[in-house]
Each structure stands twice: as structure tokens, then as C-alpha cells.
Amino acid sequence: MVNWKFWQQRPPARILRLRSRGDMGDATRVDFEELAPAVETFLGQAAYLQLGYFETLSRLIRATPELEEKEALSLAAGAALVKHRAIIDVIRDRGDDPAEIMRPFQEQLDTFRRATIGARPRETMLSVHITAGMLDDFYRALAASYGDTGRRIARILNVDSDRELIVDLIRATIDADDEMRSLLSMWARRLVGDTLLVARAALRPQRLGIDDEKKVEPVFTALMAAHARRMDALGLAS
């Protein structure tokens, strides 16, 4: 597991709403009071995460000789880059420097990304599908805290991520190879822990009290339910 201590400042008061969308299920409202981060933190991390997905997928494109796989990876990489650039536009429209907004999270999120790169291409494909799916869900929920800026980010994150062909490749591997099925199932369970730490670190100042834990729990329950549905769709046990 990666130890995350991203933010030392106490964040301003926000309201976090979990909205219904696809895998996220029924709408749930959760008040986080002062647990949600400042908008600059939200934007910087969201933008850099998309850039990280693009980089990981681009490296896989270079590493694979199969044209079918290159096509699947290129579609997903392109979608991540489009989302990254759209979030950058939001940052610029606020009058901020995108590099300065993202820089505080570069080292920590690069560490997270390196920790979720697998020894085999299929593991890394699964990493992107699982971690991006969970964190996109989380940031869509968090976006409700930030008024018009948050609504713009939610619309960006709602755009199709074009990972369907990657899912097809993973599913074909699972169907054809029981050993890989077991390995990928274990790998996915490992990914969940590190991914939830990234999401939790975006909320807490230093410590999360008992009452705050109760407020946070419904959001992470929804994230895990959505993750279980993704795993079921792949034919893997969550």
C-alpha cells in the first residue's frame, strides 16, 4: 500500500453530493462539511490523473506489437487526453496556471501510477480500467461541491472513456486462460486498496473522526458497489 499525505492545510467547507449515473446507482447526498478539498486541489488532481492515464496507455501502445491492441489502447488514451485538456481549459478559465495547479500532486500520483503498473500488459490494462473507473466516479461525486466549475468537470468526466475494446481484450484473456483469470482477479483486489487511499486522501485534513467516517462511508460503499459491477462484467470476482 502507498502512504498518502497529500494535503496539510485544513480545506474549506464544501458539500459533496453523490449523483446517480450509470454504475454509481441511486442518488445519495452526503454532507462532508470541511472534509472536501479546495477547488484547486480538486482540479489539479483530476487533471493530473487523466494525464497519467494517457501516459500509461501510450506506453502500452509502444510496447505492444499487435495492431488490434494498439487500436484499443489508442482510443482509450485519446479519450483520457481529451478529458485532461478539457479540465486544463477549466483551470485556465479560472485564471490559474495549469502546471502550478497540478504540480503539488505530480510526485504522489506518479507514485500511485507506478504502483499500479503490472508485470504484464493485461495487468496494466486492468489497472487503468479499475483505477480510472473508481476515481472518475469519485471525482464526479466530488464535483457537486464546486458550483459551475464542478458541473463543467462532471460533464467532462461523463464523456465516454473509450475503454470498451480494452475490456474486450481483458475478457478474452480471462475466458481463454484460467491462470490469468486468477492472477487478474488478485491484481484487481490489490488495486482497490491503493485507489481508495487516493480518494480518501482527497477528503481528510489530518485525521478523520468517527462522525466524519460515518459521513464518508456511503460514498465509498457506492464506489465499491460500482467496482463490483465492473468486475462482474469482466467475469472476475471482486
From TrEMBL:
<dbReference type="Pfam" id="PF13794">
    <property type="entry name" value="MiaE_2"/>
</dbReference>
<protein>
    <recommendedName>
        <fullName>Ferritin-like domain-containing protein</fullName>
    </recommendedName>
</protein>
<dbReference type="InterPro" id="IPR012347">
    <property type="entry name" value="Ferritin-like"/>
</dbReference>
<feature type="domain" description="Ferritin-like">
    <location>
        <begin position="38"/>
        <end position="199"/>
    </location>
</feature>
<dbReference type="InterPro" id="IPR059125">
    <property type="entry name" value="Ferritin_actino"/>
</dbReference>
